[in-house]
């Protein structure tokens, strides 16, 4: 597997004081007491951590969409009488489909973020069913981005996987960084 800039740090035999340790069970159940007063400190931990994980994936999807749309202005459409990709209705439909998938993922992310913010302000927690729904929605949103990238790679053509193509890095990053669903 080939990464694009991630690093792994490992520490052996490191002392961690009890006051620096947090129960994963308490985080998962939403029973960890807030460390300070204010809505930000009442955010439901698991849900509040999961939603921002979608942001880099959405950014990769948007960058890939821009890359394909920009290149369609000058890129030839091989094996056809169409001189530029931008003139192909088929390609326009594919780009629109990818854009719709990215928009769908973004709408889910914003809706989930609003739910988390509202819960923090109201002091509400998320039970098991709500956390499961968030995981499912995150997985669905992430899948929409990955499928949009597959559409864009297909539309752009075989050159998508050239080492010099930014699109291959976007595709690889998104397919490695899938969220749990």
Q: Layout of helices and strands, plus pairs?
A:
Elements: H1 24-29, H2 45-50, H3 54-72, H4 89-122, H5 128-156, H6 166-176
Helix pairs in contact: 3-4, 3-5, 3-6, 4-5, 5-6
Task: Give your account of this protein's structure.
It comes from Mycobacterium stomatepiae. The chain crosses the membrane at residues 43-65. This is Acyl-CoA dehydrogenase C-terminal domain-containing protein. This protein has a single domain, classed as Butyryl-CoA Dehydrogenase, subunit A, domain 3. Helices cover 58% and strands 0% of the residues. It has 181 residues and is an all-alpha fold. It is built from 6 helices and no strands.
Key terms:
elongated, AcylCo_DH-like_C, mainly alpha, Butyryl-CoA Dehydrogenase, subunit A, domain 3, single chain, 181 residues
CATH class bucket: Mainly Alpha
The name of the CATH superfamily reads Butyryl-CoA Dehydrogenase, subunit A, domain 3
In the CATH hierarchy, the third-tier topology is known as Butyryl-CoA Dehydrogenase, subunit A, domain 3
Count of individual helical segments? 6
Keywords: Membrane, Oxidoreductase, Transmembrane, Transmembrane helix
Protein name: Acyl-CoA dehydrogenase C-terminal domain-containing protein
Pfam families: Acyl-CoA_dh_2
InterPro entries: Acyl-CoA_DH_C, AcylCo_DH-like_C
């Amino acid at each position: 597997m080939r990464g694009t800039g991630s690093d792994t740090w490992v520490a052996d035999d490191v002392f961690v004081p009890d006051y620096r340790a947090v129960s994963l069970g308490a985080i998962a159940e939403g029973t960890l007491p807030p460390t300070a007063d204010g809505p930000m400190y009442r955010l439901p931990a698991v849900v509040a951590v999961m939603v921002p994980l979608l942001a880099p994936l959405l950014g990769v999807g948007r960058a890939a969409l821009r890359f394909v749309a920009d290149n369609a202005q000058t890129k030839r459409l091989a094996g056809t009488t169409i001189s530029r990709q931008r003139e192909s209705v088929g390609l326009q439909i594919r780009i629109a489909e990818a854009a719709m998938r990215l928009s769908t993922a973004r709408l889910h992310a914003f809706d989930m973020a609003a739910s988390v913010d509202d819960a923090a302000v109201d002091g509400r927690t998320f039970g098991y069913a709500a956390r499961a729904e968030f995981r499912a929605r995150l997985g669905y949103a992430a899948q929409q981005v990955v499928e949009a990238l597959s559409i864009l790679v297909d539309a752009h053509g075989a050159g998508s996987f050239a080492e010099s193509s930014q699109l291959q890095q976007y595709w690889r990053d998104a397919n490695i960084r899938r969220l749990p669903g």
